[in-house]
Amino acid sequence: MSKNELIAVTGSTGYVGGRLVPRLLESGYRVRCVTRSRESLSNRSWSEQVEIVEADLQNKEQTLAALAGADRAFYLVHSMTAERNFAEAEQEMASIFVEAADKTELKQVVYLGGLGEDNLEKSLHLQSRHNVGKILASGSTPVSELRAAVIIGSGSASFEMLRSLVEVLPIMIVPRWVTKTKCQPISIGDVLRSLLFVLEQPQTDNEVLEIGGSEVVTYREMMHAYTKVAGLRRRIILPVPVLTPRLSSHWVNLVSPLPFTLARALIDSLTTDVTVQKANATKRSGDHQDSLEDAIGKAVTRVQELEIPTRWSDTSSFRDPARPEPSDPVWSGGKILVDKREVKTDIPEEALMRTICSVGGDNGWFAFNWLWAIRGFVDKLLGGVGLRRGRRHPTDLRVGDTVDFFKVTSITNNKLQLLAEMKVPGHAWLEWSVQTDHDGKCLVTQQALFVPKGVLGRAYWYLLLPAHIIIFSRMLGNVIQSAEMRSAN
């Protein structure tokens, strides 16, 4: 097949679709993103490289127009977050789509569904996923249906639910099926490889391909794998027979940022075994490379590699798909606690940055230096680096320099980011940025960011929150005051 073909991608604003599009572009395809709102793709780094068509897939005319002229299409939409009748909505969209695919003479439709046996009684969500596949395959257009279970990657709803439960709860009371139901999780990287692989194979008939990782585990074993990779204490998991899926959904809603309707759909689908049954599926859907621990590791490494939200949009499209994207839902990517403060000033940008870059060492921390000294002393007692590493130069900074118990991880003409190397139950940064607006004023932004590690990390942040409010407010005020004096001189 020609790599110059036009590929229509529905669900391009979703978790899988948003990560698939840049890989299609990298492979040389022309891409058309089908979305209900053009603005929903405005923050993507690749939005200028694709054709964007607005269409509601429940509208026949709009769907037909969206597929006109395309060679192949990905069907990656679902209605899991709908309050009611999501199965009816999914079937209606699939019926309209297959009719439009036949009329526009598409060469192939690639559909991502869910693992599990047909005619499932426990999960309406999985039933609907399978019904959509059957509807798509009822037309004359060849359909490649890939079925996957839990997808491991930052931003995946199933993974974020797992992350929230394990991070927040050292002891969990769970329904009995958590310890018995079998699952075959797969990394988002392997899912994308499979989607691209089937797109590049000659396709004349319908086929269903089951894809999964190398390990079959229970959900309890998956939780234990997360604690091991994330460096948390092993969680105590107590199974009981009385928690129904609905009760479990409310429980998840209390400790997780996922919407209740999404949590309910996910939990319904977790109550039945979802494993690969066809042994030759992998050969026909590409190589699967990631073990469960590898997949989890890729999903959480953005902390070690300093990929906090202010940096997501700056990274290359070649980055690992398991990490966060700026368009991911607000509940994805793990918990990040932020103290953010902003001030507008007439002080020139250069003077502000010179002052900011003088932080630490003999110059001090702009406010409450005695508190910073105490924190350094405590850190030393705990086996940390302590405060008095100082800095290489009183005014000059480079990436990798130490600044007391911080390290410079990023520095530009208008930004400075420091990673805390003190002993804390998580990962912490201090960050300043300066931006000049159209009227010549400078907006100075100071952020303290903290990714907590388990319950202790969250307790640490909130225990120190009153002190942080006072310290960080005074810090920014004194930065402005010092810069003003420097500018006057």
Write a brief caption for the model:
This protein folds into two domains: 6-312, 3-Layer(aba) Sandwich (Rossmann fold); 337-488, 2-Layer Sandwich (Alpha-D-Glucose-1,6-Bisphosphate, Chain A, domain 4), CATH 3.30.530. It has 15 helices and 19 strands.
Question: Can you characterise this structure?
Answer:
With 489 residues, the protein is of the alpha/beta class. The chain folds into two domains: 307 residues, 3-Layer(aba) Sandwich (Rossmann fold), CATH 3.40.50; 152 residues, Alpha-D-Glucose-1,6-Bisphosphate, Chain A, domain 4. The chain contains 15 helices and 19 strands. The strands form five sheets. It has a seven-stranded parallel β-sheet with strand order 3-2-1-4-5-6-11, with helices on both faces. β5, α4 and β6 form a beta-alpha-beta unit. α3 packs parallel to α4, α7 runs parallel beside α11 and α13 crosses α15. The chain is globular, with a radius of gyration of 25 Å. About 3% of the residues have low confidence.
